[in-house]
Specification:
With about 550 residues, the protein is α/β, with parallel strands linked by helices. It has 2 domains: about 170 residues, Periplasmic binding protein-like II (D-Maltodextrin-Binding Protein, domain 2); about 280 residues, D-Maltodextrin-Binding Protein, domain 2 (3-Layer(aba) Sandwich), CATH 3.40.190. The protein has 20 helices and 14 strands. The strands form 5 sheets. The protein has a 5-stranded mixed beta sheet with strand order 2-1-3-11-4. Strand 7 and strand 8 form a beta hairpin. Helix 12 crosses helix 18. The radius of gyration is 25 Å and the shape is globular.
Length: about 550
């Protein structure tokens, strides 16, 4: 099995149940309305733009198509997780979750307690689209199957290609051209480019005010050190694991990690990395990028360039930036961070559902995994925000396109009631996402997705290690709790020391490095790796 394609959300401690939960289901009167439709009490996390989920056009279409009636227990997305935990703790939960966000640990805990129904038999009997998903994505079924062999929840599947490779470096192509420089391909070439940005006055204002490289903290892959470390050893800034012949190892205590720290410290000590890159947030990065007057940014790490510059109609500064491929380090290493994700389990059926409700619910989930719903969920009904592609219109691969976004989609307001706005579960495959008409101008707001696709395909796709560790993985509740506690301590230790070594507040001497490596012993690194190795071996039996 190809192991690099698996990624899950991080395991969490499971909330202890405070009350016993009732089983069984509702009466026939509760299950069916006067027209024979099955009523499903359903928890949903409602996006802020949706006006009324009960009267929403997509809701009404699904009810009519599947002969069901939703009885929503809705929560704003901002506090949906808190409400879910309260419901599970009190036992006052619904028959169906569309936005359960159940971690692997929660799925095992609630599944073993009989609260979440196993979906295996229902999928086998009614899951046409779900089984199609398993057939088309060989990793999906294994990724969502608990160690006891049961599937307790279905994830929202969004095969966002550019998100898989979201650890990106963007560089000012206009400045490169002005200074007669080529796009760097190695760490040393990039070092020379940064020096030229600092001293060559590429913004032309006669001042040495340029910031060669910047980024942000707690912002989507925007810390420069994480991108740069991949020129020495693989670093996804998530679990810091590397794989060697099926064995789980930590990257952050390897000699190659030290080499990476030395290079990044060199850039920082020479003023080539913005000192604010380790402390400023995303809003402050935007303020820097969109400041009045001359542009100061030579290069920036970010999941997409819109995190640093406005990409709104009429804005032009962002158009100067292109991605830099993984830089080849002194030993030939050049990795791209890889983040394919299935996410937590959103759809689940509880023991509050009767047999009829469970069947109706799995048929609902099966429809939500269809291509029709993937389009309708985000774009509504054909003709308003999208239309079928015309003959001659081509997709991003140069093949005949299937769909075309209409200009109206770019001007959707802050309140609407004609789409689900990615609520619940869908299965937005790469095939669906990449079947839209490629825009004429990739630098326009409507062409942004195409621009990100092209940058990713040209510079990052396939540059990840052959084997990577899943960011989270099914394990029993006790191991999950222990691993989560150790993970927090170890990752905090890694990130804190990375910043100290880079900024020079901790010197990268032999003695200091040895002390840093020895510090992992007190954090029970061996036990931490043992837990994840056992889980990895279980997954790949």
């Amino acid at each position: 099995m190809r192991k690099r394609w698996v990624r899950f959300a991080a395991p969490m401690m499971v909330l202890a149940l405070l009350a016993a939960c009732s089983g069984g289901g509702g009466s026939a009167e509760e299950e069916e309305s006067g027209d024979g439709a099955v009523t499903l009490t359903t928890f949903v996390s409602v996006p802020p733009r949706i006006e009324d989920i009960s009267t929403n056009e997509v809701t009404k279409y699904i009810e009519q198509k599947l002969n069901i009636r939703f009885k929503f227990d809705a929560a704003p997305s901002a506090n949906a997780e808190d409400k879910k935990k309260l419901m599970m703790a009190s036992g006052d939960y619904p028959a169906v979750f569309l936005s359960g966000n159940f971690t692997q640990a929660e799925q095992i805990e609630y599944g073993q307690q009989g609260i979440l129904k196993p979906l295996n038999d229902l999928i086998e009997q009614y899951g046409v689209e779900i089984k199609r998903a398993f057939a088309e994505d060989s990793e999906l079924k294994a990724a969502i199957t608990a160690p006891d062999g049961n599937i307790y929840a279905l994830p929202h599947v969004n095969e966002c290609f550019h998100c898989w490779y979201s650890q990106k470096l963007w560089i000012n192509k206009g400045w490169l051209d002005k200074l007669g420089l080529k796009l760097p391909t190695t760490t040393e070439e990039y070092y020379e480019v940064l020096k030229a940005f600092k001293t060559g006055d590429p913004n032309g204002n006669g001042q040495q005010d340029e910031i060669p490289l910047t980024g942000a903290f707690n912002t989507w892959h925007a810390i420069p050190a994480n991108f740069l470390m991949n020129s020495f050893i693989y670093n996804n800034d998530e679990n810091f694991f590397i794989m060697e012949n099926g064995k789980v190892k930590l990257a952050a205590n390897q000699p190659e990690w030290r080499d990476g720290l030395a290079y990044i410290n060199r850039l920082y000590s020479e003023g080539l990395i913005d000192k604010e890159a380790f402390t400023q947030n995303g809003d402050q990065l935007q303020q820097l990028g969109n400041r009045d007057g001359d542009n100061l940014i030579g290069s920036v790490t970010a999941g997409h360039i819109g995190m640093a510059f406005s990409i709104a109609e009429g804005e032009t500064r962002h158009k100067d930036y292109v991605t830099v491929p993984p830089l080849t380090g002194p030993k030939g290493v050049a990795y791209a961070g890889f983040y394919k994700s299935y996410g937590n389990g959103n759809f689940a059926i509880t023991n509050k559902a009767s047999e009829a409700e469970a069947i109706a619910a799995i048929k609902l989930a099966d429809y939500l995994y269809s291509e029709e719903h993937a389009i309708m969920n985000e774009y509504g009904f054909e003709g308003k925000y999208y239309e079928k592609a015309k003959p001659g219109e081509l997709d991003v691969h140069g093949n005949p396109a299937k769909y075309t976004v209409k200009p109206e989609y770019a001007s959707i307001g802050t309140t609407l009631n004609d789409i689900w706005d990615q609520m619940g579960i869908t299965r937005r495959t790469r095939a669906i996402r990449e079947s839209w008409t490629a825009p004429d101008d990739p630098f326009s707001p409507t062409g942004y997705e195409y621009r990100l696709f092209m940058e990713t395909a040209n510079h990052y796709e396939g540059r990840e290690p052959e084997e990577t560790f899943p960011l989270s993985i099914f394990m029993d509740a006790a191991d999950a709790k222990e691993a989560n506690q150790l993970r927090t301590q170890i990752n905090d230790y890694i990130r804190s020391n990375l910043a100290q070594f880079v900024t020079g507040s901790r010197q990268l001497t032999d003695a200091e490095w040895d002390s840093y490596v020895k510090g992992f012993d007190g954090l029970k690194l061996d036990r931490y790796l043992e837990i994840y190795q056992n889980a990895y071996d279980q997954l790949n039996k």
